[in-house]
Amino acid sequence: MRVAMIGAGYVGLVSGACFADFGHAVGCIDKYPGRIDALRRGEIPIFEPGLLDMVSTNVRMGRLSFEADLTEPVRGADVVFIAVGTPSRRGDGFADLSYVYRAAREIAAAMRGYTVVTIKSTVPVGTGDEVERIIAETRPDADFAVVSNPEFLREGAAISDFKRPDRIIIGTDDARAEAVMSELYRPLFLNRAPVLVTSRRTAELTKYAANAFLATKIAFINEIADLCEQVGADVQEVARGMGLDNRIGSKFLHAGPGYGGSCFPKDTLALIKTAQDWGSPMRIVETVTAVNDQRKRAMARKVVGACGGSVRGKTIAVFGLAFKPNTDDVREAPSLSIIMSLQDGGARVRAYDPQGTTQARALLEDVAFASSPYECVEDADALVIVTEWNEFRALDLPRIRDLMRNAVLVDLRNIYRCKDVQDAGFIYASVGRPTPWSAPNAAHSGAASEPRRRGGGLAQLAAAGAP
Ligand SMILES: NC(=O)c1ccc[n+]([C@@H]2O[C@H](COP(=O)([O-])OP(=O)(O)OC[C@H]3O[C@@H](n4cnc5c(N)ncnc54)[C@H](O)[C@@H]3O)[C@@H](O)[C@H]2O)c1
Q1: Claim: this prediction has a pTM higher than 0.90
Q2: Quick one: which of 164, 225, 265, 440 could link to 235 by a disulfide (CB 3.0–4.6 Å)?
Q3: What integer is the mean pLDDT of 264-272?
């Protein structure tokens, strides 16, 4: 089949390369200055494991090409994907759909014959209706269908997610479009990927519901982590105990510095706005976003606490800038807020990330960027692990300790065992685990607090008949 992919970013480039790998002929189009030239030279503008190989192979086989102008690829296409960005709109937080609508107008002008226009970008419910209206208005003679096909890939594991998806959602009521989409994804049907054909609006909303639910899980376990620190419990064991329950599942129950990235923050906000517009507010998600926003500065306060109450004049080494491992994407990364809060407190920040430095450099001021973890910690007063890249999991701790001015390690991803780090001579703080900075709240621990606990929560629960 012939496919045109509008937008060659994280989603468009990965999806385009994977469709080409299935054997389809794919033209990827992008307007970002220099992006198409770079792709034609064989350079991949983003870091995604395995993508370079897949793109090179499919270009060589003549199945994947790159264009700055969409006219030719769209003219011959059976399916045109819209995979452009839908960032938060400045001011009101609603999804900025201007790129989607512009793409729709351009597609309308170029398409010939029956064309399935498929929205892969994450868009608020009802956007498909508006895209349909725009195309019909621009080209009253056009023969087309607009389908919603939300993408669920995760950066860092995007190729395997695309090729082995948990599900494929096709939102359309048009039988002809459903047949075209089924043929496009046929290689995955053979892998028995579950396919859900729904109405377009259902498909659009499913994507937001899924992301908001995952964000809720993260915010929930982070609040449990805070409580663990107060009562002297271990959040990792709590999460394991919860996650082994099949109804809950263990994924997205890792306490940390809060969610970031190009999806959860903007998608939760857009869902909140959509729900408000439809008079059906999502109060749980509203709370999740507020909890998550506060968490990032709270993590900076944790660092300040570990440094004895002030970071003024101190050098803080930060490991990890990307919002998660195996990507260079720093959009809405917790590292950005944490670094800026530490700078507000008078700290000098030196940072290291295996892939995210170039993107972070554009967003941060007065940060020194190191080219290795060991260079980053030289004479530092504290080390903060913000992103759990594999290369941070097995650091030479004695070497790090000897390079630092003060051996303070704040592990916001709980990648180390408390005892190992303390044995290596560090003052160690982590998230939701009993450490010197997360000691049980004195007012509630020990004999003095027993009567209060019995007289309070437990007695009330017993009175209420709780098990
Ligand atoms: N990144 C993810 O992990 C992920 C996962 C699932 C869904 N999504 C959704 O997919 C969409 C794209 O996300 P992304 O991370 O790939 O964004 P991105 O910013 O990496 O890429 C978008 C690309 O679209 C290009 N573009 C914009 N308007 C264009 C036009 N008219 N013609 C041609 N190119 C155009 C931009 O230049 C940019 O390169 C968003 O709606 C996002 O929410 C993203």
Answers
A1: yes
A2: 225
A3: 97
